[in-house]
Amino acid sequence: MGKNVFEEYGLKKIINASGKMTALGASSVTEEVASALKVAAKEYVDIEELIEYAGKVIAYHTGSEDGCPTIGAASGIAIAVAAVIAGRNRSLIEKMPNSDGLKNEIVIQKGQTINFGGTIDQMIRMGGGKVIEVGSVNKVEREHIEQAITDKTAALIFVKSHHAVQKGMQTVENMVRVAQKHQIPLIVDGAAESDFRKYITMGADIVVYSGGKALEGPTSGFICGKKNLMEACREQYKGIGRAMKVGKESILGLIVALNQYQLKVPRAEEQLSRMESMCQKLNEIEGLSCVTKQDEAGRSIYRAQIKVKEKAGITAEQLLYRLKNGDPAIYLRDHYVNIGVLSVDPRPLLIGQEDIIAERIITVIKGDDSIA
Ligand SMILES: *Cc1c(COP(=O)(O)O)cnc(C)c1O
Predict the structure, then answer these.
(1) Which one-letter DSSP state was computed for residue 192?
(2) Which residues pair with 209 in a beta bridge?
(3) What is the pLDDT along the chain (372 residues), one digit of tens a residue?
(4) Is the peptide bond before 185 cis (omega within 30 degrees of 0)?
(5) Could you give the angle at which helices 316-324 and 353-366 cross, rounded to 10 degrees?
(6) Which one, out of 28, 113, 308, 364, has a CA that is 20 to 30 A from the CA of 17?
(7) 192 CB within 6 A, ligand 1
(8) Of 115, 161, 196, which is best to mutate to test ligand 1, by the most ligand atoms within 8 angstroms of its C-beta?
(9) Side-chain half-sphere CA neighbours of 121 within 13 A
(10) Measured in angstroms, how far is the CA atom of residue 281 from the centroid of ligand 1?
(11) Would you call 268 exposed, middle or buried from its count of C-beta atoms within 10 A (0-12, 13-18, 19+)?
């Protein structure tokens, strides 16, 4: 393999086995998406028309009434919040995030106020929302939500994420019921989800996705939902959205990625068998045990979970550190490093990189590597 473009600039070569991580460049796009980015960068277009057209493409692929392209799911949250507060009123749009005197409260379950690299709380506030956390981190009842609703409530938000507490929260179905009963919009943050129709079908008013995660598109995102709300979202580009401008390249790349998405063959089975054969190699090493495990949020992602036991003579933290500081730098998924478990996410791996990972781990455990 030749040098990649970042190596040409003296930056380190990365093997990404940790997932769709913003910190590692999120996704690697297809040739078609890459060429859309290149072509779009060279030509002119009426941006408002392009954004409206993207809205139609988003609607088509999500089964929603309309859509709005964004530069990421994080900006999607801020824009959606500003939209439910300011609507299409130009003066209010320009006043955001100052929402004094307006219906501005956004109700969120305590176990869902996550940090995905930035905090959801801050994204809501950037959109002019006042965050109303309800319940406890591990327990939220329906009453907590209902009793938090006042004449100041602008929306409810539900966060579907492996980062969130999975047990004890109100389900998205219940959130839909409460939102409909009180006639307030429900925003769903489904940034990393791969089913772009699910929450719209369930009755959510606004759903926010990342374009760089399951979609494997460029740095981008999209919002889908009710027509009037999507029009309001697009209008925010004359307000806070201007500081999160999505360029013509990203929009066209997003459109091409969405159009390709349905055609993509599911690769879960192939990925599972690659992880199984990597586990076989690692299970021959004393001190390691490796099994394949389905994603915590129930998506069809099968990761290898490597348990580093005392007999390995090294802790999971030390192994993680050594891999990260090797050449190439290997990034494993480290959510469970505190209990001695490291995971390998097959989605971002090129064919064969799982062998490089297994070899490096074995070398480190055997103490044959020279890196301190
Ligand atoms: C990744 C993520 C985001 C942010 O998405 P970007 O596209 O990187 O802006 C927001 N919410 C959740 C739950 C996420 O996982």
Answers:
(1) T
(2) 222
(3) 567 888 889 898 888 888 878 788 888 899 999 999 999 999 999 999 999 999 999 999 999 999 999 999 999 999 999 999 999 999 999 999 999 999 999 999 999 999 999 999 999 999 999 999 999 999 999 999 999 999 999 999 999 999 999 999 999 999 999 999 999 999 999 999 999 999 999 999 999 999 999 999 999 999 999 999 999 999 999 999 999 999 999 999 999 999 999 777 667 888 999 999 999 999 999 999 999 999 888 888 899 999 999 999 999 999 999 999 998 999 999 999 999 999 999 988 887 899 999 999 999 998 876 544
(4) no
(5) 120
(6) 113
(7) yes
(8) 161
(9) 12
(10) 34
(11) middle
124 lines ligand 1 (CB under 6 A): no
- Beta bridge partner(s), residue 134: 109
Cα 160 to averaged position of ligand 1 atoms, centre (Å): 10
* Residue 108 and residue 132 in contact, taking contact as beta carbons nearer than 8 Å: yes
- Single-letter code of the amino acid located at 86: A
Q: What are 30-34's contacts with CB under 8 Å, separation 24+?
A: 30/216, 30/257, 30/260, 32/256, 32/260, 33/217, 33/218, 33/253, 33/256, 33/257, 33/260, 34/253
| Ligand 1 and 74: CB distance under 6 A | yes
pTM: 0.84
Mutational pocket test of ligand 1: of 213, 216, 244, the residue with most ligand atoms within 8 Å of the beta carbon? 213
Longest dimension (CA), the chain: 67
For 87, the token pair is 């609507």
Bond from prior residue into 328 cis (ω within 30 degrees of 0): yes
Ligand 1 pocket mutation pick from 114, 163, 189 by most atoms within 8 angstroms of CB: 189
CA of 74 relative to ligand 1 center, distance in Å: 5
In angstroms, what is the span from residue 288 Cα to ligand 1's centroid?
33
> Ligand 1 mean position to 116 CA, how many Å?
6
> What pLDDT score does 62 carry?
95
Phi, psi of 53 (to 5 degrees): -65, -45
HSE of 337, CA atoms in CB hemisphere, 13 A: 15
